[in-house]
Amino acid sequence: MGDNKDGIETLIDAVFLLKKSFSNFLLQLIGTASESELSLLQNKVKLLGLEEKVLFLGKKNADEIPHFLSDSNILVLARPNNNQAKAGFPTKLGEYLAAGKPVVITKTGEIPKYLQHKVSAYLTEPDNAFDFAEKLLDALTDQNAEKIGQEGLKVAENNFDYSIYSAQLLNLVQK
Hints:
The protein is mainly α. The protein is built from 9 helices and 5 strands, in the order αβαβαβααβαβααα. Helix 2 links the parallel strand 1 and strand 2.
């Protein structure tokens, strides 16, 4: 959660906006941050009156993560428009898509090359809590959300499965 690589502050702001029109949700945040960063995030949640809506679960073991992903209705990542996002692809996005759940994510870096809005994910503008809240509400109320999650799973299977690329890599190494 640290260093704003996942846009947690934007996500908290979006949850605050969402709460005004949709109250039946719970945001669970998994991960670590420095003590000072975590304190700032927790204070923001308290200031916005979101203590009942935003839970900081801390670090989890890798074998616990699939349980959280499969038990979630929607998976979210408010990745900011920074150098890391421009030059990288979030590993956790592959995990989110592989869960077959609807994903709400910002349009940064390579993400829009693989995902289409309301086809395989819900794409939002980076650093825009209003847009993120709007797309969250859409995902929570869309009758096609489950289908969109399954389309995201297909994107993951067709593009991010290690077995697709391992044979190509082995062939390249052998040459």
